[in-house]
């Protein structure tokens, strides 16, 4: 896939001509100087924010900032998300004011374009910018002479691809492509995304994972003032090799980590008990070490460590470090300034490590709560570094518009929401209560994150626009549309178990829709005049899908061409969509004898945008807004509304409307 994407990008860079319009954009890009504006705004997307779910689980005392926005801000009754309701597609709609049939980020995994050069089964990440075909708000703000910062914004800061459906870009697509590219060159546009370049993931390191070495290799040990003989070791990951030292006086209780065996170059963590105090009156993640700067071929990254436990004799320990990332930015100065100020941003809390039992047995594995406490410390650090990054853009760079993001709630709800659901067949009341407590504590950190942003905005008499990308609900049943298509005679697997596109009429490459394998695709077999007949067969198969007891698996089927109001279909989307029955989630799997199977508990979204559990929020707080409720909105209304507030044009491809007259 990497070679395919590289080839597409190379083709687009070299094969197209410059139009008069786009050439003018390029020539004028560097001449734009930001002008002061009376308005400043923070636009923050809180991943998986659903007001109903929040109010059902947390009180105003537990989540004061969120309740303050909902009760004291100007809000729509709810915001309808993208269809399917997934993160990459939802955020592309927030940023651009358009749906997936326009911006081509149709899901988290989307068709690779152009169609005539790619098969119907080829996909690319929707978080990548290669398919993006609409102008994001930070580019529009740049051309409107606003200082703008994009803080870990999806589909940024790489080139927006504006790929053609088939063949080469049109003259208009080429002009749009060059306008966005030139916009990234503007000095008043500062966009960064650490998710694009992860060097190494979260890790728990124990004694059996390291190589023990001679302590004599270490320098400047005398200044430690310890009585026990230190124990030295090394460990390696994709960022490099690290030298470690366990030391202490009456017992081993401290660890130093360095790039060289020199105590003067090391960061140090002590083995403190897990946190039991609340968040309100102390520093978050206070037992983590200072950051250790690590230079890699891809750029600078940082290592922070937490020594969760060490045996008295130093023969065993539990060391954790979060994932390590290189900041991807459109200006080198942004990367350098952010690195110096934040020193160690990483992509999310260690929720997957927690559920896998790497912090010790979880409560649903019979644990005593220690694993949960360790997980929360990772979430604390994640919140702390994200807040620091927001402060850098808002206070140090003095941006007029800060486009921000926070995914902590999404990750914990994926992990725990089904354990909290009494209708799940595996529900255990004691475990459910423990998971509810952990989930709610994590969302209290989300609330602290929002409080930080609200305070930044309040100090500048600015507005905070609080939005989300989708909601969440529990699931424990899997629907496999590709297996259904096989049973309907619409898809065939080859001898290796792969989809044989030379004999398959329809495919579900991302699990969110069915695409007819027309001759528009490379290697496609369905002629254009046969497409409607194949769609009818797909619809019939979906409507007839049933579980072992005859219950319906699909609530409703949507033919993309019949529902332009939902923004489904388009060049990178499919032909037929659906809404699953309660507790189901769809997958892209092509294997198996049955298209329905019971699977593990998992909080899930990606459902139809019409599902109440998928609804999210749009609110404006401060900056002249007061308590008000207006009818429901759509995610595509966010960018036009924020643009209107800042007195600048909406993004060029926006299809939503400004809510500002109704919210004020």
TrEMBL record:
Positions of region (Disordered): 149-173
Pfam families, alphabetized: Phosphodiest
Lineage: Bacteria, Pseudomonadati, Pseudomonadota, Gammaproteobacteria, Alteromonadales
Protein name: Nucleotide pyrophosphatase
PANTHER family given in the database record: BIS(5'-ADENOSYL)-TRIPHOSPHATASE, ECTONUCLEOTIDE PYROPHOSPHATASE/PHOSPHODIESTERASE
InterPro entries assigned: Alkaline_phosphatase_core_sf, Phosphodiest/P_Trfase
